[in-house]
Write a structure and sequence with these properties.
The protein is an all-alpha fold. Helices cover 79% and strands 0% of the residues. It is built from five helices and no strands. The longest helix has 31 residues. The mean pLDDT is 94.
């Protein structure tokens, strides 16, 4: 038995329609397939961010959110971890900035920023590789 599809009608102004037509053409896709793909991706991001907020505020468990959103539990947990890592990195940089100012060593802060930037690049690369699997 095949997947059931739902039909959705979308109204676009002229400029948006031209951009959507061009994007679909660039990707060698029909306009409807393009809109379905980007709509699904955008919806996935919105629902993922909502699930993370629900989890971090204690409203629901990961398993409850995975069931409600149809997102893999691991994906929600991964985003929670990434968000927390981002917050920790920001706190680290603020601390390094204050320390660099206190010690009058601006190089300390520059090195810390470079280190955080490199870690973020490494994590983004690892994430892309994981998404490709």
């Amino acid at each position: 038995m095949g997947t059931r599809l739902t039909t959705v009608s979308v109204r676009l102004d002229q400029q948006a329609s031209v951009r959507v037509d061009k994007a679909a053409q660039v990707l060698h896709q029909p306009k409807g397939a393009f809109l379905a793909q980007v709509g699904e991706e955008a919806a996935g991001q919105v629902v993922l961010q909502w699930a993370v907020k629900q989890y971090t505020t204690g409203v629901a468990s990961l398993s409850e959110l995975a069931a409600e959103t149809q997102l893999p539990l691991e994906r929600i947990a991964q985003q929670v971890a990434e968000d927390r890592a981002g917050q920790a990195a920001e706190m680290y940089l603020v601390s390094c900035q204050h320390l660099a100012q206190t010690l009058r060593m601006p190089k300390f802060y520059r090195v810390a920023k470079k280190a955080v930037h490199q870690v973020r690049q490494d994590l983004a690369l690892a994430r892309r590789r994981e998404d490709e699997r």
